[in-house]
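User: tokens in, sequence out, please.
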């Protein structure tokens, strides 16, 4: 599962747990309703700043999502290194 999928799933789940509509979340995060909807549908990816604003509006930490992202980047880098071996 990719970071965007995890973030979207967590965002939607938390929004519903809080009883918020997409419009209410957008207002709390100072974003447009359209953008929130596009993120949840996977049509747009939020920047780190936007993800932070959403996490603040949902009163939930962003760190778990960042940890998954970090692991994916590390895996990608090791995969690239093994695919393109080089010597020093």
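Assistant: Sequence out:
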């Amino acid at each position: 599962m990719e970071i965007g999928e995890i973030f979207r799933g967590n965002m939607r789940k938390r929004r519903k747990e809080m009883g918020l509509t997409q419009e209410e979340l957008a207002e709390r995060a100072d974003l447009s309703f359209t953008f929130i909807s596009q993120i949840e549908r996977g049509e747009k990816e939020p920047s780190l700043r936007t993800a932070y604003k959403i996490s603040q509006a949902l009163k939930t930490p962003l760190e778990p999502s960042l940890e998954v992202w970090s692991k994916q980047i590390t895996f990608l880098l090791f995969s690239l290194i093994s695919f393109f071996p080089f010597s020093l």
